Amino acid sequence: MKIAVVGSGYVGLVSGACFADFGHDVICIDKDQAKIDRLHAGQMPIYEPGLDELVERNVRSGRLSFTTDLPGGIADCQAIFIAVGTPSRRGDGHADLSFVYAVAREVGENLKTPAVVVTKSTVPVGTGDEVERLLQEARPDAPFAVASNPEFLREGAAIDDFKRPDRIVIGADDDLARDIMNEVYRPLFLNKSPILFTTRRSAEMIKYAANAFLATKITFINEIADLCEKVGGDVQDVARGIGLDNRIGSKFLHAGPGYGGSCFPKDTLALLKTAEDFDSPLRIVEAVAKTNDTRKRAMGRKVIDALGDNPRGKRVAMLGLTFKPNTDDMRDSPSIAIAQALHDAGVDVVAYDPEGMELAKPLMPEVSMVNDPYEAIAGADAIAIVTEWNAFRALDLDRIKETANAPVIVDLRNIYQPDEMRAAGFSYASIGRP
Asked: Are residues 114 and 254 in the same domain?
């Protein structure tokens, strides 16, 4: 099958490369000439483990190609995926659908053969209806269908998630869309991946509801962690104890500095705006979004408290900047608010991250970036572990004590054990543990 993917960012590039690996002929389309030039040169615009090898293998096989030419790119394609960004709109927090609608218009103007146009971008309920209207307006005589196929990829594990999904959700309101989408995902039938066909609006709702629910689990365990610190409990034991209940499950019950990234912050906000528009308030999601925002600054204060009575002029080594490991994504990362809180308190911040520093620099001009964790630690009055990269899980504690000004660690990801750190001579603070 010939497939076009419009948008070569995180979702589009991963999806396109995986579709090609299934054996489809895939062309990824993007208006950014520099990005396409980099892809032609084998340079990935994002960091995702294994993506460069996957792209290179399928380019070499002839199944994957890149272009800026949308009219030529979609010619003879049976499935055209829209995978452009839907950031929060300035001023009101609604999802900005201008890129989605611009692609829909251009596709409509150039569609010549029967095809299904699929929104893979995260879009509010009813977007598929508007895409269909724009296509009909541009080419009333063109044979097409519109489907919704939301993605559920975890950054850092996106390729495995795509090839071994928990579920494939397809919102389709006619036989043409269902038939073509069945053919697109036929290679996954051998894995018995569950495919759920729904209406378009239900599929659009599933994506937002899933992200809001996961954001709620994260925020819930973070608040339980705060209570554990007050009453002397251990949040890791609590999370384990409730997670063994099959009705709850253990995933997303890891206490930390709050959620960030490309999905949860903007998607919870967009869902709240949709709820406002339809006069159906989501009080729980409102509390989740507000609590998560305030938590990030609170984590900054936790680090400041570890510096003692007079933090001004002291130095903190911040280990980890990205919102999670195995990505270079800095969008809404807790590290941004934490660094700002430290800076506001007069603290000097020196940071190291294995992949995120280039994207972090314009977001955190007050932070000095170095190329090694021990360079950041040297002369530090406290060390804050903000992202749980594997590189930080076995730090040389003796070396830290020799080079840091003080043996103080604030572990915002709970990757070390409190009793072991105390035995090693560290003043150690973590999340939700005595």
From this structure: no
